[in-house]
Amino acid sequence: MGDHHDQDEGQGAAPHERPVDPFPTAFAPPPSSLFPPIAPEPPPVVEAAPADPPSDWNAGADAHDLPVRESPLTAHPLATLGRFAFPPGPPLDEDGQGARDRRWASRIIVFAALFLLVFNAVSPLNWSHQQAPGWGTETVRGLSEVWSRQIAQTGADRPREWVRDAWRQFQALRFDGSRDAPAEG
Fold first, then answer.
1. Are 121 and 151 a contacting pair, CB within 8 Å?
2. CA contacts within 13 A on the Cβ side of 111
3. Which of 48, 79, 136, 180 is the most exposed, fewest CB within 10 Å of its CB?
4. For the purposes of burial, counting CB atoms within 10 Å of the CB of 137, is it exposed (0-12), middle (13-18) or buried (19 or more)?
5. Could you give the CA distance from residue 121 to residue 146 in angstroms, rounded to a whole number?
6. Is 26 helix (H, G, I), strand (E, B) or coil?
7. Which of 128, 154, 131 is nearest to 143 (CA)?
8. What sign has the CA pseudo-torsion 2, 6, 9, 14?
């Protein structure tokens, strides 16, 4: 009877084969990756600094007091990972650039219109009072009255009132420091 680790002649490895190496040093080549390797950026060309002219150099200065800047040659690992994970796309052609500019302009116009509708809600009402009566101006007047009352309840019209009051006070000032009677309206 042998040890349970003994192998029969018909099973497993031959008795004189080399055992498995516990610390292998030769490896099979790794499988090819789906991603390209990260190539280091080439270092920028640095011109030689001009020699220091004779100046008011303080001989007692300590070089360790100078601020230390990181080398521009080393990129932060997260920046490298970002360039690898999200590479920049190809440059836009004229149509792509035009579309991007139109999207930007549209967003700005919509944002400005919404901002004015909230913080300057009285302007459409004032405009409708200045126009000739008609179906369109009466519709704008009715909607503007309701909208300006709702906005006034939130207090969003206060900055416009403060600016208007400050402007009227500025208009009422005179060079001698006296004030005119405040204008009504």
1. yes
2. 6
3. 48
4. middle
5. 10
6. coil
7. 128
8. negative
Question: What local confidence, expressed as pLDDT, does residue 151 receive?
Answer: 92
Token code pair at residue 135: 């179906």
Residues 125 and 144: beta-carbon distance below 8 Å:
yes
DSSP H helices, 44-93, are 77-85
How far apart are the C-alpha atoms of 152 and 146, rounded to whole Å? Answer: 10
Q: How far apart are CA 152 and CA 119, in angstroms?
A: 10
- pTM above threshold 0.90: no
List of residues 6+ apart from 38 with CB closer than 8 A = 80, 84
Q: From CA 103, how far away is CA 113, in angstroms rounded?
A: 15
The two tokens of residue 83 are 């360039």
- Token pair belonging to 68: 């230390």
- Using alpha carbons, select from 100, 94, 151, 91 the residue that is nearest to residue 121: 151
The tens digit of pLDDT for each residue in 15-29 reads 677 677 777 777 777
How many Å separate Cα 138 from the centre of its chain?
44
